[in-house]
């Protein structure tokens, strides 16, 4: 049996893709889940941070720890209750794991935590951000800063810790791409808001490869902008979606005020602009499979 990788949030879209890659590479994969499930080739351990419960054996023979758990930020309007859930699902889970590792005297070889491109702010216009840029001061920025602070608790144990500030992950099975493609399939593809806002995107294959690189390459440590090297505007992404589907782009743009009426504060997620530069990734040996948006969208949407 290969080295054990324990994943929180493993049943999410990224988790499923990453699990397949890890199993193919010979790793032993285990999940932490709030419910006992039967998943082929994966051992599932229950946990409940509210009750302080972690199933016996979850941390046994642990080599790598990956944290993907987190309430979706685009799952509903941001009520105060939803905001607390978005924060606690990312932060409290890591704090709980840190305490469990300390109690059991277990020290994994590496800890890789998801983080967000929203670290720099929900809407930062045309300002270009590298990993050394300061954080923003809005809700998602606050969540991401606290998320990374929680990850640093494990780093303080002497565990090599990597934080991947992830942009919009392009995948046909979930996330933003299917939602944007749905109206385009009907011939109603349109940019959102001004269409000029920058989108820090990355293809699913590349983000999963980054997780593997972060596990295996001991030179990786700290925060990385986990985005493709060529950011695009919302209008360009819409254009490529329509092109891949063989559909016309419908005008005019969906106005920002309409999006705010429907989504409330959460509308900032889709109309905000964020220009991230993958400065630290570019200095590693990592090679992108999909560095350009046209090929990435075509791979996911083009029907054969």
From TrEMBL:
**Could you tell me which Pfam families the record lists for this protein?**
DUF1731, Epimerase
Report the InterPro entries cross-referenced here: DUF1731, Epimerase_deHydtase, NAD(P)-bd_dom_sf, SDR39U1
Q: Which residues form the signal peptide?
A: none
Residues in domain DUF1731?
Answer: 254-298
NAD-dependent epimerase/dehydratase domain residues: 5-217
- Taxonomic superkingdom: Bacteria
Family statement drawn from the similarity comment of this UniProt entry: Belongs to the NAD(P)-dependent epimerase/dehydratase family. SDR39U1 subfamily.
NCBIfam families, A to Z: yfcH (TIGR01777)
Q: Cross-referenced PANTHER family, in alphabetical order?
A: EPIMERASE FAMILY PROTEIN SDR39U1 (PTHR11092:SF0), SUGAR NUCLEOTIDE EPIMERASE RELATED (PTHR11092)
Please report the name of this protein according to its UniProt entry.
Answer: TIGR01777 family protein
The top of its lineage is: Bacteria, Pseudomonadati, Bacteroidota, Cytophagia, Cytophagales
């Amino acid at each position: 049996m290969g080295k054990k990788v324990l994943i929180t949030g493993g049943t999410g879209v990224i988790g499923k893709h990453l699990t397949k890659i890890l199993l193919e590479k010979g790793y032993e994969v285990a999940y932490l889940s709030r419910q006992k499930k039967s998943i082929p080739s994966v051992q599932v351990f229950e946990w409940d941070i509210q009750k302080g419960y972690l199933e016996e054996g979850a941390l046994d023979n642990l080599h790598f720890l990956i944290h993907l758990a987190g309430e979706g930020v685009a799952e509903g309007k941001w009520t105060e209750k939803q905001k607390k859930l978005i924060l606690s699902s990312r932060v409290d889970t890591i704090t709980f794991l840190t305490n469990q590792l300390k109690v059991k005297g277990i020290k994994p070889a590496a800890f890789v935590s998801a983080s967000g491109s929203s670290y720099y702010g929900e809407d930062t216009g045309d300002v270009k951000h590298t990993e050394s840029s300061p954080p923003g001061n809005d809700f998602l920025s606050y969540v991401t800063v606290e998320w990374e602070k929680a990850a640093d608790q494990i780093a303080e144990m002497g565990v090599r810790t990597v934080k991947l500030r992830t942009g919009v992950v392009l995948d046909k099975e979930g996330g933003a791409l299917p939602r944007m493609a749905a109206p385009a399939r009907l011939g109603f593809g349109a940019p959102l808001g001004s269409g000029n806002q920058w989108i820090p995107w990355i293809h699913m294959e590349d983000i999963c490869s980054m997780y593997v690189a972060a596990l295996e390459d001991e030179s990786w440590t700290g925060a990385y902008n986990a985005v493709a090297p060529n950011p695009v505007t919302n209008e360009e992404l819409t254009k490529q979606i329509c092109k891949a589907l063989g559909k016309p782009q419908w005008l005019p743009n969906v106005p920002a005020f309409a999006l705010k009426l429907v989504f409330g504060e959460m509308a900032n997620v889709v109309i905000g602009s964020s220009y991230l530069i993958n400065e630290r990734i570019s200095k590693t040996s990592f090679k992108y499979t999909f560095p350009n948006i046209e090929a990435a969208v075509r791979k996911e949407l083009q029907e054969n």
